[in-house]
Design brief:
It is built from six helices and eleven strands. It is an alpha/beta fold. α1 (12-24) runs parallel beside α5. It is globular and about 35 Å long.
Length: 180
């Protein structure tokens, strides 16, 4: 199971593209609302989530969490005790954490990216405390998969598929959606 946490002000493309690709790959993706199950993105698109953060169970069935960026979505994710608990659970249990745009800053503020390769939205690099930052669309290091922003959301989604399914499935989807 993969949880995609959504908070008011999330960047819609950064959430929907990875959700779509992971579901195409056959993954059980559960959208999790922070605060409510009707969440409005930074561009006014509202999403009804599958569940709310208070009801999201952290157990061995969880294989990944995904944190979309956007403002103030990233700030709202970071303030959530449930999101913080999910991050801690993933770190303690070796589960993947995907974060895109400004959301890698949440991991940086926790000191989790120190010495790790990571990317983020331009200007947020200083918030990735100790990370080895780059400019590639997606960076994967250990359990962390980070990406730059809305324009890299498809590459991010394909990287999440590669980690949770296989590189062959990621390539199959790349061809199926004509992302050459």
């Amino acid at each position: 199971m993969i949880y995609v946490f959504l908070a008011d002000g999330f960047e819609e493309t950064e959430a929907i593209a990875p959700i779509d690709l992971l579901r195409r790959a056959g993954k059980n993706v559960v959208t999790v609302g922070v605060g409510d199950n009707l969440i409005t993105g930074s561009h006014g698109i509202s999403v009804v989530t599958d569940t709310i953060a208070q009801e999201a169970v952290l157990n061995d069935e969880l294989e990944m969490i995904v944190l979309p960026g956007g403002m103030p979505g990233t700030l709202n994710l970071e303030k959530s005790q449930y999101v913080q608990a999910a991050i801690d659970f993933c770190v303690q249990n070796g589960k993947y954490i995907g974060a895109i745009c400004a959301a890698p800053s949440i991991l940086g503020h926790k000191g989790l990216l120190s010495g790790k390769k990571a990317v983020c939205y331009e200007g947020f690099e200083t918030q990735l405390d100790g990370a080895v930052t780059g400019t590639e669309p997606v960076a994967a290091d250990g359990i962390f998969i980070t990406s730059r922003g809305a324009g890299t959301a498809v590459e991010f989604g394909l990287a999440l598929v590669e980690k949770t399914v296989s590189s062959a499935e990621s390539e199959r989807l790349r061809r199926a959606i004509m992302c050459f």
